[in-house]
Amino acid sequence: MEDVIARMQDEKNGIPIRTVKSFLSKIPSVFSGSDIVQWMIKNLNIEDQVEALHLGTLMAAHGYFFPISDHVLTLKDDGTFYRFQTPYFWPSNCWEPENTDYAVYLCKRTMQNKARLELADYEAESLARLQRAFARKWEFIFMQAEAQAKVDKKRDKIERKILDSQERAFWDVHRPVPGCVNTTEVDIKKSSRMKNPQKTRKSVYGPQNDVRTHSPTHTPAPEAKPATEEQLQDQINYWGGQLDRHRLKMSKVAESLLAYTEQYVEYDPFITSTDPSNPWISDDTAVWELEASKEPGQQRVKRWAFGINEVLKDQVGREQFLKFLESEFSSENLRFWLAVQEVKKRPIREVPTRVQEIWQEFLASGAPSAINVDSKSYDKTTQNVKDPGRYAFEDAQDHIFKLMKSDSYSRFIRSSAYQELLQAKKKKSKNLF
Amino acid sequence: MGEMDTLKKEADGLKTQIETARKAVNDTTMAAVASGVAAAPRIQLKNRKTLKGHLAKIYGLHWSADNRHMVSASQDGKLLIWDTYTGNKVYAVPLKSSWVMSCSMAPSGNLVASGGLDNMCTIVNIKAASPKTIRELDAHEGYLSHSRFLNDSEILTASGDTTCCLWDLETGKQKVVYKSHVGDCMCLAMSPDQNTFISGACDSSAKLWDIRDGGCKQTFIGHTSDINAIAFFPSGTAIITGSDDCTLKMYDLRADQEVNGYQDAALNAGVTSVSLSSSGRLVFAGYDNFNCNIWDSLKAEKVGVLSGHDNRVSCIGVPDDGLGICTGSWDSFLKIWN
């Protein structure tokens, strides 16, 4: 960016800087917005005005030049006047100005009795906030502001105008108008790992202010340590284990992903509009009310046929599945599965009691809702129940799940109860009459 | 150091063999298979709602399982819980440390979690008479970058100390520690069946873990910089990662490798966040350059852009019912689109 600025400031080929006469005074050292745009298009290979404005706004946001009568740092393609920022204040100097400096600056502004140097609302708020924060040091800050105001008064009027505007622009970058982009921001997730460039810790105004940063501590990133022998051995064991894993062919994998998206595309509100309408668009919450109701719509019922997981994850689906199985007097598998899912979520102190209850209900000899598990799982579960934890029934649950998937679930989908639900919506609308 | 050299050679040799094994199953490419599919429609999303209330950068958001409420975390030191449809703030939770990096809500809607540079995960019960901190999970040695509840008794966390962890909320202690990454863990996502989860880290790799036994089941490489965001494809058989190297990648768990990449020569901003639509066909990715791009997950083409924020999009989320998408930004606003 600084190369471009240097070119812009070049006396012969740069942007013409002039002093403009305005009502009672002269406005020194300015150029207009359209001047910048024109120059960019001519000298920087930029094709259109929009791009030039974008680039210009970015440079302004970083503080290389600024509008003289506005705090908001953007570029407009018109007669608005801009000025270059002095190299002292360039971002490349890595300023991290302290709040104390800002306080001195705002204080100084209030001492200057010119109407055009009055504080803007957000600046007045900041000043009030800083006064509260630095209450004890305020005398010190006030003295500094006074000292600076004195020095400024001695300067040549035109020089003062320019310096004042440049100082103001510097603060517009580091303490931007609320709502504006702050180009000096750093992501805290990355800041603790960054290798620090030499941040200029000294005060903007001289050596007096103490150096207390308000941003999180920058600890330099630890150098990546070369792997130890132990780590290398771990890696070898890991990758050795991974080598022989079964890998599915790309064609199968791609087909399956495609098939999934195709099957679910009608359930994707971004691609297929929902029926009833999407509440975010139409302001009508019917679709949420329908979801919450006990009466499943046709589309929802259709989805249960995609796979057993669809039935199990939909509350109404689970209820209907259970109802069907109860009508066949074969609901113990599903009830067991649901009970085990539930105990996994319980707080740990409730788990042992619950595990015992499940054991008594489903697995103990003479259990009222006896389920059939293979002997291996049965033995393992018997052991687990002696020292009950959340996963005591893991093996049994896996076995039961496979049974349900191949047997109970397919019967459910083929059942007349399910088929009726699928048609239910049509029936309901008939009943309205 | 002959021993070290031998070990290194062995490790590298294994990795090369694995790459060969992976290539061996490449009988085609996703691009070839997807060429037969109809193109996804061009997506033009409108901003339906803007949630205003935060005073500083938003670092995280998470939809409630009820598809209507949401929790968001900002550097103004607050967690806000919203009724997104009306735009009302239902609860405000003041945080002890304002350097928050993430937040999440339990499926029950009773608890929210937050954490950041304080290295702790703070659990708050928002359904109590007034929001009450019930746990401070304090064992990580680095910042807390991400968290997700399994239920009201267990939570997963990812940390800058390169580990992820499963905590028991009743005792406040770590139950399982997932160690294998060699860089800060930046993000995590749970599988639809809640038996496994994936994590992305600054070592440019993504890992799949068994929640119960803490073992790393698979590792996916290919990115050349920090992985900032990660999500499961809704089928649970593939994952999408977003990185500072300005690309997103889809890895399939069964093929054990990258099957698709989403990049554009013109893009030179890192990916900060990622979320998918319900069918998995659309990938929404937030970038450093204040925009979100919408990608067709199968054809790897851009099908839309979301621009409306005045600063970086730091987080993104699609609710379970897939009816919209919410973006959170450093400009302090949350916007809902569809």
Notable traits:
heterodimer, A: 433 residues, mainly alpha, Arc Repressor Mutant, subunit A, Methyltransferase, Methionine Synthase (B12-binding Domains), Chain A, domain 1, Regulator of G-protein Signalling 4, domain 2, four-stranded antiparallel sheet, 20 helices, B: 338 residues, mainly beta, 28 strands, 48% strand, globular
Largest sheet of chain B: 4 strands, antiparallel
Oligomer classification: heterodimer
Beginning-to-end CA distance, first to last residue of chain B: 60 Å
- Percent of residues in helices of chain A comes to 55-70%
- The portion of residues forming beta strands of chain A comes to under 5%
CATH architecture annotation of the domain at 293-429 in chain A: Orthogonal Bundle
* Overall mean confidence score, pLDDT of chain B: 93
Protein name (chain A): Regulator of G protein signaling 7
Subcellular location (chain A): Cell membrane; Cytoplasm, Cytosol; Membrane
InterPro entries (chain A): DEP_dom, G-protein_gamma-like_dom, GGL_sf, RGS, RGS6/7/9/11, RGS6/7/9/11_DHEX_sf, RGS_DHEX, RGS_sf
Domain RGS (chain A): 307-422
